[in-house]
Amino acid sequence: MIKRIDILSHQGLPMRAVFIPANEQAPNHPGMTPDSRDIVEFYDARYPHTPDGQFISRYYVETLKEGNKYVGLDLQGDVPAWKIDARTKEMVLEWIAYHTYKRPEDR
Questions:
Q1: N or C: which end of the chain has fewer CB within 10 A?
Q2: pTM, entire model
Q3: How many angstroms separate the CA atoms of 78 and 38, rounded?
Q4: Strands across the sheet with 14-20, in order?
Q5: Do strands 39-44 and 3-8 pair parallel, antiparallel, or not at all (unpaired)?
């Protein structure tokens, strides 16, 4: 099930993260073929280009987990406002972990 969380950039601007589980259709990109891996997309919520805002970037969840947890995330290098700090990145990863946790009896 697709999940959304509203976050703030390192400058305090409203953003949104959208978690798209493996094999589910990306809600703001209906022409995309569903991916076989979990994805998280980031949006600038100030702009109504889609119901979630202006698309910024997309990452495989496993890629985000591999990164240094003490470093934030530069979502697009040429837009200084589109960065999240390490604490916000960690919160997004914990939020994803919560939504992907399976109880032992459900595995």
A1: C
A2: 0.91
A3: 26
A4: 3-8, 14-20, 39-44, 54-60
A5: unpaired
